[in-house]
Structure formats: structure tokens, C-alpha cells
Design brief:
- By secondary structure, this protein is mostly helical.
- It is 63% helix and 6% strand.
- The chain has a three-stranded antiparallel β-sheet with strand order 2-1-3, with no helix packed on it.
- The longest helix is centred in the last third of the chain and has 40 residues.
Length: 342
């Protein structure tokens, strides 16, 4: 393979951040119903990963099982199988609220999206995630009776009780850690163009947060409702839906927002924004994201493309309002003008 044929499949952090901003701008342009639909799909994908983790971990619990002699084993099995859900979301494409805590904040900081689109994406992706997770819990978990008896049943009921009765502050902090790691996994997955690289990047941070016992609000939208459904088979009520909302979902969601938006997105933006500020300026903002007096600050990238060597020579950035024919580079013979890369 020659040097020209070699493909670089890794992006530096600053270039990865630029790609995340581009993805956030694209997400902000989706309609509310498309965001909701893709949010439902993401919730379903994550729910399937959660269901797998429960069935797998449950097989290592109970008397005479390997988990009886090594209590950490069921959690390790749960952590090893849980990432399947996020892998499907990334490779198949869907809208995960916790990931959007990172994706949407960055273009908002760069004034490439409107506040309305920012809120729209968060609200409808969150609502869609909830609907998708609960539907999978009921139709593919409860009605199929895959955890109606045995180790899987006992494991999910105990897990739901633990999550719904933990302290508010502890759950909030666990939420911070969970989405910091989830967004880190998404960030690292974007840094690779190879599917194998994405799989590795996604798996390790997710394995880490589940093993530690951090709280992910979208995963809990499956785990706890499913635990409530399975608890009803026993005619007992050690916890209820109100406990789930008050002591788990609210603090976990707030912690996830802080972990993904501040500890991942904002800190990365502060560290690297000076390295790609010029490139961000060339991105097309969502219509209405900029005030009229800010439009002149938006530039387009002007370059010329060599049709023979298939290379591009960069020229100066030109303010969008000044991008007139007189400002553009005059192509030499054999050179064709390249469209503005915005």
C-alpha cells in the first residue's frame, strides 16, 4: 500500500471536537418528530442492551452459581454486555439524550444553533428515550417472561430496589460520573473511522461506569420500570414508580446533564477551542442562530481544487457578507474552483 492509499483512521482531540460540533449542528436541524422518533429508537436499542445484561448477569446468581463464590462476577457480566445498546445506537444511528448533552452544548457555545433547537432536541430525545425503553421493557421483557423466574428475576428486582432507594445526593454524583464516561466513549468513538476502533472506544468506558455502579438515566428508564413489572409477579411492592422518579430519575438526569455538558463538553471546548476557532467559523449555522450584527463574523472557506492532483490549496477566509466574485481567488489553467466548505 502506498502512502497515498493509506487511510488515517484516527482524529486528534481537537479535530474530534470539531466533528462533534458538526454533528451537533446536524442534530439541531432535525424536526421535533424526527428527534422523538429517533429518540424512541435509541431507547429501544439501549433497552435491548439492558435486557441482555440482566439475563446474562442473572445466570451468575443464586445458590451454587459462580456468583455465590465471587459476588463481583454478576456485575462484571452485566457491565461486559451492557455496551451492546450504545454500540447499536452509534452504528445504526439514533438520538440518545445523554449523548446530546455533549453534542448540542458545543455548537450552542459556538453560536451555531439556537436555544430553541437546543431545548427541542433535549426534550424530545429524552421523552423518546423514555417511551422506547419502557416499550421494550414491557413487550420484549415482561410479556416474553425472559426474567419471570430464576436468577434474572431476582437480579432485576433487587437492582430496581437498590436504585430507587439510594440517597439523592449519591445518585446525583453517580449520574455525573456515568455520563462523563458515556460522553467520553462517544467522543473517542468519533475519533476513529474504523468500526473496530469505535467498538473498542465505546466498550471500555461503558464497562467502567457499570462496574463502578454509576447511574445512567436512560438505562434506568428500562431497568427500574422493568423491575417494577417483575416485582408485580410476586404480589409485593418494596418500591414504586414515585420512588423511581424522586430518588433515581431526577437526580440521575441532573447528574448526567452536568457530567456530559460540563465535565466533557465544556472542559474540552475550553481546552481546544483556540486550536479550531478558524475552522468553526467556516461552519454553516442553523438559520436564526446568529443575530444580524453577528453575521459578518461568519466566514466561508475559499480554496481552489487541482483537478489533476485531486488536492486543495487553502486560501484566506472571507467574511460571508464579503464573499463576492472580486474576493475569490482566480483559478489558474487546469484548476477548478471548489465550492465553499460550510
Amino acid at each position: 500500500m502506498t502512502d497515498q492509499q493509506a487511510v488515517i483512521s484516527f482524529r486528534t482531540p481537537k479535530n474530534t471536537l470539531l466533528t462533534v460540533i458538526k454533528a451537533g449542528i446536524s442534530k439541531a436541524q432535525n424536526s421535533w418528530w424526527m428527534t422523538f422518533l429517533m429518540g424512541g429508537i435509541a431507547g429501544a436499542y439501549l433497552g435491548l442492551g439492558c435486557l441482555l445484561s440482566i439475563v446474562a448477569a442473572g445466570g451468575f446468581t443464586g445458590a451454587g452459581s459462580f456468583g455465590e463464590f465471587n459476588p463481583a462476577l454478576p456485575k462484571l457480566v452485566q457491565a461486559a454486555t451492557f455496551p451492546v445498546g450504545l454500540i447499536m445506537i452509534v452504528l445504526a444511528g439514533a438520538e440518545l439524550f445523554t449523548g446530546n448533552c455533549m453534542f448540542l452544548l458545543l455548537p450552542l457555545l459556538e453560536k451555531k444553533v439556537k436555544w430553541q433547537d437546543f431545548v427541542k432536541n433535549w426534550f424530545w430525545s429524552y421523552f423518546g428515550n423514555f417511551i422506547g425503553s419502557v416499550l421494550v421493557a414491557y413487550f420484549l421483557g415482561y410479556l416474553t417472561e425472559v426474567a419471570a423466574t430464576g436468577g434474572a428475576h431476582n437480579y432485576i428486582v433487587a437492582l430496581g430496589l437498590k436504585k430507587s432507594t439510594a440517597g439523592w445526593g449519591a445518585t446525583f454524583l453517580k449520574g455525573v460520573g456515568a455520563n462523563w464516561l458515556v460522553c467520553m466513549s462517544l467522543f473517542m468513538a468519533i475519533s476513529s473511522d474504523a468500526t473496530t476502533g469505535k467498538l473498542i472506544a465505546l466498550w471500555w468506558p461503558l464497562f467502567t461506569f457499570v462496574t463502578i455502579g454509576f447511574e445512567h438515566c436512560i438505562a434506568n428508564m428500562f431497568y427500574v420500570p422493568f423491575a417494577l413489572m417483575e416485582q408485580s409477579r410476586n404480589d409485593t411492592q418494596n418500591f414504586n414508580f414515585g420512588d423511581f422518579i424522586a430518588y433515581n430519575l431526577i437526580p440521575a438526569t441532573l447528574g448526567n446533564i452536568l457530567g456530559g455538558s460540563f465535565f466533557m463538553a465544556l472542559l474540552e471546548w475550553i481546552v481546544y477551542r483556540d486550536h479550531f476557532a478558524g475552522k468553526v467559523a467556516t461552519l454553516q449555522p442553523v438559520p436564526g442562530a446568529l443575530r444580524k450584527d453577528e453575521v459578518t463574523a461568519t466566514s466561508v472557506y475559499i480554496g481552489v481544487k487541482d483537478s489533476q492532483n485531486n488536492t486543495t490549496e487553502a486560501k484566506d477566509q472571507v467574511p460571508l457578507t464579503d464573499a463576492k466574485p472580486s474576493n475569490l481567488a482566480t483559478p489558474s489553467p487546469g484548476i477548478e474552483m471548489e465550492k465553499p466548505n460550510i
